[in-house]
Amino acid sequence: MYCTSCGIKNEDGAVFCANCGAKLEQSATPAPVAETPTAADILVESPEGTRQGDTAQTEQPVPPPAPIYMPPTYNAVIGTVKQMGSSGKFLAIAILYSAIAGLSVFSSLISGFIIPTISNYGEELAESFAGTFSSFPSVTTILIIIGLWLTYAACKKPENALKTGGLVILKVASIIELVGAWLAAVAGCIVLLACSLVPELKNILNAANRELTPIGASINVNQILAVAGAFFIAVMAVTILFCFKKLQTVNAVLDSVRTGIPSQKASSFYGAMLYVGGAVLTLFGLVVIVGGFAVSLMFKDYVSPSTFELVMIVMAAAMFATAAYNFILGSLVFEFRSEMQNIKNVSDTAFIQD
What we know:
The protein is mainly α. The protein contains 10 helices and 2 strands, in the order αββααααααααα.
């Protein structure tokens, strides 16, 4: 055992230390000192193969993160249509078409309430001029106005999506116009056939021909009907094709918005015919202005010059407004075709690179 005073080892059983004489205690033998555990001894292998502490607390489940709002992905096709639909050009189209309908109503009111006349003959003459270009807005006209303004309002909204209610209304109006053109063509052909085949109607035409033309006896009614029929069929064929291409163009815009894929079906024929119609209407408007003043002087004894001037100005204004509408809409049709082609080319290039 060891002495607690000097630390010298003595024999077992000794009572006093052989070195310093101090009394030895039997329990003075130091107990073995326990080794300090290390971090590696504290960690033990868990059943799942991961090392965990003996005193570690049980893990709590981590709650899922709160959902984060992500805006819809930008689509180039929809973005392009929104940009075109909210542009100044489209706004001008909506304003012009609404103005055309308003001028039509105003022209109708002129013939009944505004035109000052001197005699019954002058009144009938003035009303005939006003009636050639006046009518209250049809169902298709009202639908087109609503569709244009709804489309413009939808394109002005900041979100990436585009509501198609206005485009659907424009499509319905185009379908009605196409069906109306077909019905008019069928009705016209029936009338021409009836005038050619029914003897009673042919006799009426012959009598009217002899009465209205000095050389009526030498003109063959069948030839007149043949020329009129050929001209009518040609005009109606172009009209039906124009209405069909218009519907095809509206469908191209609508399909592009719904699918987000650029459509290549916008008709260049429709755009070109809009330009042609605009040029013809501009020419007619100039003729109406010049002719109106000439006619007002010719019939000044039956109707006041201001009557014809007012009627001609309204008619010319409506023609000029329609011409401007055609020019701007035609430019938008070709712009849409070009933009969709550019988007398709970019998409094809990216696909090839991938």
